[in-house]
Amino acid sequence: MSSCLRLYTPGGLLAKQILLKHQRHSSITPAQIYGRSTFNHSLSSSVPFRAGTPLVQRSFSHSSKSFTSASTEHLKPSSTKSGSLDYAAIEKKWLNRWKEAKEAAAANIAANSPTGTTSDSTAASKNDREKFYILSMFPYPSGVLHMGHVRVYAICDSLARARRLMGYDASVINPMGWDAFGLPAENAAIERSIHPNEWTIRNIAIMKTQMEKILADFDWDRELRTCSPEYYHWTQYLFLKLHEAGLAYQKEAVVNWDPIDETVLANEQVDSEGKSWRSGALVEKRRLRQWFFKITEYAEDLLQDLDRLEHWPDRVKQMQRNWIGKSTGAEFDFGVHTPGAPPIQVFTSRPDTLYGVQFLAVSTEHPILNHVPTTHQSQLEAFKEAQKKGTTSNTDQTPEGVHTGLFVDHPLIPDTKIPVYAVNYVVSDYGTGAVMGVPGHDERDYAFAKFLGMDIKYVVTPDSGNEDEAKKSAGALTARGVLMGNCGEFSNMTSDDAAKAIVDKASALGFGREKTSYRIRDWLLSRQRYWGAPIPMIHCGGCGPVPVPEKDLPVILPTDVSFTGRGGSPLKQIKEWVECSCPRCGGAAQRDTDTMDTFVDSSWYFFRYLDPHNKSMAFSYDKATTGMPVDIYIGGVEHAILHLLYSRFLSKFAWKSGLYGKGAEIEDKEGKAPGRGEPFKVLLTQGMVQGRTFKDPVTGAFLRPSEVDLSDPQNPIQKSTGERPAESYEKMSKSKFNGVDPEDMIAIHGADATRLHVLYKAPPSEELEWDELSIVGMQRFLAKVWRVVEHAASFESQGDSSQSEFKPSTGVMNKDERELWRQLNITVKELTTSFQSTYAFNTSIAFLIKLTNQLSTFVPPAAAAPNQSNNVISRGLYRHTTEELVKMLSPLAPAFGEECWEALGPTSKSKKTVPSVFSQSWPKCYEEAIKDEKVVCGVQVNGKSRFSIEFDVSELPQDKVAQEQFLRGLAYQHERSDKWLKDAQGQPKPVKKMIVVKGGKVVSFVL
Ligand SMILES: [Zn+2]
């Protein structure tokens, strides 16, 4: 601990310590202050506080009043000047202490274990308490921790620590790991000639140190890396399970192709201009044989079960609903005129508009295009070539298309030839890759018809009007209504009735049927890159694709590769790896050279955390059944769709295939778990951290910090112009020069204050405008807490506070004591709710500040004013309130909390040492203390209401005479009593009779 003794004021460390000891022990004796010897445990000599701050030379006023037998001393209110704290020293001290404690605990377990080997806290549940599983989205090991990470880890670390205080102890699961596969490592290999594995491991080491600096206490014995064979062994195993269940399959697909990185991109990796997010290349479309997970098989489950997720943000659920995109309607077959061509199937959610079909629109990949007459082929090829640019999902571009030379018949209107167009706005994988063009009632079809110069046909009108009426309104009429007279036997039916009748007729005639369609597409997981889990399949000329037998897993990613950055996966170049024998027939075969999308790795890692060292299974049935679902999942809203949907899919698959059990459905004391294989009970999506951003108001160019004079932070000046720059808060980024390095913040302000600041500035789900200037507010708060602790340390604890048994009798409290007691309980209630359900840490901190301020008013002045008898509180209550304050603050500011707790000293006489604050119990809230105590009492004079007085319910004496006296006293203090109850000289008029009714809510004077 000697390294933690650094005092804030430079020079003379030893001398100052001696001086302090001298002050404590000789300038005033403990017995003089405390009446008993309790001092030896307070403010142990290693406390890093500012030297010279007088610790005990306070004047205390003694009062005979007491509410417990243990204490008779009272404090008088005051404030003291600030003392400064060396936060860095405090943090270093406690990081070392925590480390030592963990090592000691591990050694202890090893010593007591028969085999002397296990230090695995995951091995067995050491207590019978319920588990509480906190999960933060694991990071990609980039080697750089940013403020967004600080925010999410501050939230989850605070939650974990609070839960431990609440009695979950070792059953809190708060793991951390690394989403370690992915493109950046491979690009680093190409650019810097460092192997992806080496690069990744180096970055992990850096980030672990950074996480330690923000005092995040993760379960490192559960740590995992998705790039290690011990992990991807089981990713491959799950792939095989999905394959076995028919949920992993191969098909040719149109993909987004990055011609520079030579890889397939997800639509999300393509920007609005159709360029690759990484290389910036114009993305092309290509057809490739790809692996898919059949997530569409679960579309209905994934949709329906959103309703079970009570504790997910509504907007996230809505985004998932939209992504799944269920629509019910019909499928119609349109016969093609060309001999030998199959009918074109279309899906529509509006079968009632069948009479309005003016063309069919098919995707440029639709198989019917193989039947295009030669007269139209070159035109079609040119169009397809032009469409290669752009992504597979740019459905919001201007509709364009070419006639294919093909025609279909309208199934219900005789002799109607309908042209077929190949268009850019129909996606090949959506539905059937063909839609019926109804320009009168669909906006995209309308836009395309206008592009073609077509007359628009209307068949449905909101009223039962005619087509001419409808034509008056420009654009598509998308609302349902009544079918017009041009719809044969269905005319004048409502849209709903007509839809049903038309589908019935289509079924009877055999050209259509009812159909439900989903927008969600199967999950394309093949990547033609190196740094990912190899797909465990072998391609045999005779047998086709054959799964690698489970016993041969993992398929190890070869390490000896060369990175050129070109030519697809480097795995293809490694002949000795690719060439293998077929597991089925033994013949010559080749390994699949694709690797898996990193979203596969991250869609099941929360299972592996529960059983991270299992060598024979992905996770044990029992551990997953007990540990799932995750109680709270914290991460960025940018993962609201894909990652969460994929995780739900994998988790449901694991549940349905019996990899874990019904435990996921049991109801716990904090509400029902969603069940049905849903992995996450509560989802907390944290908002972005934004930085203060300066721009040249004329050019709009971002300004570097060096280009802005911030000597007056409220009035920034652009140095080059002397004018005020444009200012905003924007997502932190290098190009905007508005980034903040968390390590700098911690070095300057301390991790505790930085954490508090991040949590205090905004509720977790909202955007956080990073403002370094206001961290000082948090430091002031901590300094104030420290002064309160200094004072409380000198008073003996009331009972064993680890049991939270302290409960004063409110009946004998004075007004200030009651108010403090009330405020303490309000704060306990607020913090408890916040840590358990609302996660409103910003308000929680505000409550802690308020309680601290209230305690501060009772710090005795150097020279106590002798007559301030009203503001005197018991030392016992002061000490107790301080202890509870420190316990509640500790999860948020852990090192500072420990320091305060140690400074307070043992909580009972019988104890000599101070255990960690995190081994204490969470404060208990006494509901009766926070009931609304104010009584508004109406004062009646001779039967008429004149004014009202206010008092605390506890102040009202029980005795009838005392009650009247009390109320009379209050009434005479009221200014309006001059008029109604007093004579011209200001003397009370004689009272004939006084009646107190409704427990003091009305008092009636009869004069
Ligand atoms: Zn074979």
Please characterize this protein's 3D structure.
The chain is α+β, with helices and mostly antiparallel strands and 1007 residues long. The strands form twelve sheets. It has a four-stranded parallel sheet, with helices on one face. A four-stranded antiparallel sheet has the order 5-4-6-16. It has a four-stranded mixed sheet with strand order 10-11-9-12. α22 packs parallel to α24. The longest helix is centred in the first third of the chain and has 26 residues, at 87-112. Bound molecules: zinc ion (ZN).
Q: What percent of the residues sit in helical stretches (DSSP H or I)?
A: 25-40%
**SS class:** alpha+beta
Question: How many strands, which pairing sense, and closed or not: the largest β-sheet?
Answer: 4 strands, parallel
Which ions, cofactors or small ligands are bound in this entry? zinc ion
Low-confidence stretches: 1-74, 76-83, 116-128, 799-805, 861-870
Radius of gyration, Cα only, in angstroms?
A: 37 Å
Quick tags:
1007 residues, alpha+beta, 4-stranded antiparallel beta sheet, 17% strand, disordered N terminus, binds zinc ion, M/V/L/I-tRNA-synth_anticd-bd
Write the SSE topology.
Blueprint: H1 13-27, H2 30-34, E1 74-75, H3 87-112, E2 132-136, H4 147-168, E3 172-173, H5 183-192, H6 196-213, H7 229-244, E4 248-258, E5 263-265, E6 284-293, H8 299-304, H9 314-324, E7 326-334, E8 344-348, E9 359-363, H10 374-387, E10 401-409, E11 417-423, E12 434-437, H11 443-452, E13 460-461, H12 467-472, E14 482-483, H13 495-509, E15 512-518, E16 523-524, E17 526-527, E18 537-540, E19 544-547, H14 575-578, E20 579-581, E21 588-591, E22 595-596, H15 598-601, H16 605-608, H17 621-627, E23 630-636, H18 642-656, E24 667-668, E25 671-672, E26 680-686, E27 689-695, E28 708-709, E29 717-718, E30 726-731, H19 742-749, H20 751-761, E31 768-769, H21 775-792, H22 815-838, H23 841-856, E32 873-874, H24 875-889, H25 894-904, H26 927-930, E33 934-941, E34 944-952, H27 960-973, H28 977-980, E35 993-997, E36 1002-1006
The structure holds zinc ion (ZN).
Region (Disordered): 705-731
Domain Leucyl-tRNA synthetase editing: 321-506
Family: Belongs to the class-I aminoacyl-tRNA synthetase family.
